Amino acid sequence: MQQRTKTRLSLGGVARWSNRERQAAREKGRLDRETKLLLVVNALFVTANALSGTFVNVYLWKMKQDISLIAWYSLMIHLAGMVTGWLCGSWVKQRNKMNCLRAGIAVSACFYMIVLLVGNQAASWAIPLGAIQGIASGLFWIAFNVVYFEATEPDNRDLFNGWSGLLGAGAGMFAPWISGILIVSLHGTVGYRLIFAISLAVFVIGAIVSFFLHKRKAQGQYEWLCFVRCFRDNRYEWRRIGAALAAQGMREGVFSFIIGLLVYISTKSEMKLGNYALITSAVSLLAFMVAGKWIKPRYRKPGMFLGASVMVAAIVVFFWKVNMTAMFVFGIAVALFYPLYSIPMTSTVFDLIGQNEDSARNRVEYVVMREIALDVGRIAGVAIFLVVVSLNRTPAALNWLMLAVGSSPLFAWIWMKKLFG
């Protein structure tokens, strides 16, 4: 007997499964085939970047020991990512969002191909390389986040985010460690070139796997200035979310490059940087496993506050001394409590997008708004960093800068707390 199908409201009539399968998934809060494939694509993308992402900064540092250069490279990533995400919103909504996702993977592969081609001249190409990486990031994440919203529901969204964090932690655990071994074993730039080539291959595999995801229909016209309308119309929820996401991005913009660089500067060893990633990511993996099962909507508010508080408190160790002991205390503390902060933040935002038919219909615009808010915060964080280091590069100035920027998760919680539940 042919089973009748039912379409989820939040998907806009694009993904279907049988009533029995859907009910079983809702009762158990489990993931279906589509969400599992999406996790695989995400894991491959994250793994490819984890293999080389941290070491691109070290690669640029070894060529030209200028922390401002690394910051400018990071700034271009976020700026190009923000503009690309906004422009590609039209592609995602009105055309084929899966091709946008694949384009992001393809441009990421091209990035590492260009790094291989320019070789020792990479420092001179830092800003264009940052722009290319940003374009790849903008293409991939705008499409991925829309597909993620369509493929999940409030029942399994925390579980998906827990698994996503777990797989990301696993990639962050083994990929940099393997890269560190290869770089040290092969000496010079040979090891770097090898890991860049491996990243290129993993991106190709990710693109192939993406073809097994369902093709999703385009719907409606893209509203280019949706974020302007939401803030102008005094949309209470999105004003708070926009401020919270910008605060989250401010920390990410600086800490995404400074921590790995500080570990390398302290140790002068890619192997020790790989070991640092291995240990902290192993802790993060376990933390995401526990948090993914423990965090339910009613626990989001206290969970996020606890996670944000520990993330801020951990920065204080740098006022003692910036060495490997301090780096490990910081890294392990953040790895343990970051899931409590990130899972409620992500799930709540996407739950709000799917709260009614109107917001679900404009999901692409809201996802774009989310990415713009994050990138505005990242750009602001890196810009503040550049201003401070241009005036004062003493360790004390850097410590106070990290504490100021790193306190932003608490402000994110303040703006988000009234939206929980």
What does this 3D model show about the protein?
The protein is mainly α and 421 residues long. The chain has one domain (32-210, 227-419): Up-down Bundle (Growth Hormone, Chain: A). It is 79% helix and 1% strand. It is built from 16 helices and two strands. Strands 1-2 form a two-stranded antiparallel sheet. A hairpin with an 8-residue loop joins β1 and β2 (16-18). The radius of gyration is 21 Å and the shape is globular.
The average pLDDT value, as a whole number, equals: 84
Largest beta-sheet characterization:
2 strands, antiparallel
Order of strands across the main sheet: 1-2
Write down the domain tally: 1
From the helix content, strand content and strand pairing, which structural class follows?
mainly alpha
SS field, number of helical segments? 16
CATH second-level architecture? Up-down Bundle
Beta-strand residue fraction: under 5%
**CATH T-level fold name:** Growth Hormone, Chain: A
Share in helix: over 70%
Task: State the order of secondary-structure elements, H for helix, E for strand.
Answer: EEHHHHHHHHHHHHHHHH
Question: Separation of termini?
Answer: 41 Å
What is the rounded Rg? Answer: 21 Å
Class in CATH? Mainly Alpha
DSSP strand tally: 2
Shape: globular
Q: Superfamily at the CATH H level?
A: MFS general substrate transporter like domains
Provide the fold topology.
Layout: E1 5-7, E2 16-18, H1 19-28, H2 33-63, H3 67-94, H4 97-118, H5 126-151, H6 154-186, H7 190-210, H8 226-232, H9 236-267, H10 270-294, H11 300-313, H12 324-353, H13 357-361, H14 363-391, H15 395-406, H16 408-416
Antiparallel strand pairs: 1-2
